[in-house]
Specification:
It is a single chain. By secondary structure, the chain is mainly α. It has one domain: Phospholipase A2 domain (Phospholipase A2, Up-down Bundle). It contains 4 helices and 2 strands; from the N terminus they run H-H-H-E-E-H. Strands 1-2 form a two-stranded antiparallel ribbon. It is found in: Secreted. GO terms for molecular function: calcium ion binding; calcium-dependent phospholipase A2 activity; phospholipid binding. Keywords: Calcium, Disulfide bond, Metal-binding, Secreted. Pfam families: Phospholip_A2_1.
Length: about 140
């Protein structure tokens, strides 16, 4: 599932365990289901950008309404010379002829890859006070 794969990307780029990625669920005004108001910090802004990417999936990649959450995509995970995780999403043209909706698969992989990179880049802005944040306050 895409949500599971997104968690793996967060773990890869963040250098943390898989379950550490769950810290983002419910964070701030935009992390997790739903989102409203103004992002509380750069970490929350990553979630807004990720949400917007999912929102564009139907128009730009012919994804169905549930595809952003359930579609399985292919990617390659490697390590660069500096020891950093690198994720390369499979291009739509490289999926086999019998794969369903390769454009959506590539698009969702890129959304998740960029979202996970954003979390890693903005990790210093993570504020524990925004965990399980009351979205009614947004």
């Amino acid at each position: 599932m895409s949500v599971y794969q997104f968690g793996k990307f967060i773990s890869c780029y963040g250098g943390a365990g898989f379950f550490d990625g769950l810290d983002y669920n419910g964070y701030g005004c935009y992390c997790g289901l739903g989102g409203q108001g103004t992002p509380l910090d750069d970490t929350d802004r990553c979630c807004l950008v990720h949400d917007n990417c999912y929102g564009r999936a139907a128009a730009e990649a012919d994804c169905g309404s549930l595809d952003p959450y359930i579609i399985i995509y292919d990617y390659e995970q490697t390590t660069d010379q500096a020891g950093n995780c690198v994720i390369q999403c499979k291009k739509a043209a490289d999926y086999s002829w019998y794969s369903t909706n390769p454009e959506c698969r590539e698009f969702m992989c890129e959304c998740d890859r960029e979202g996970a990179k954003c979390f890693a880049d903005k990790r210093p802005t993570y504020n524990q006070a925004y965990e399980s944040y009351d979205k009614d306050s947004c």
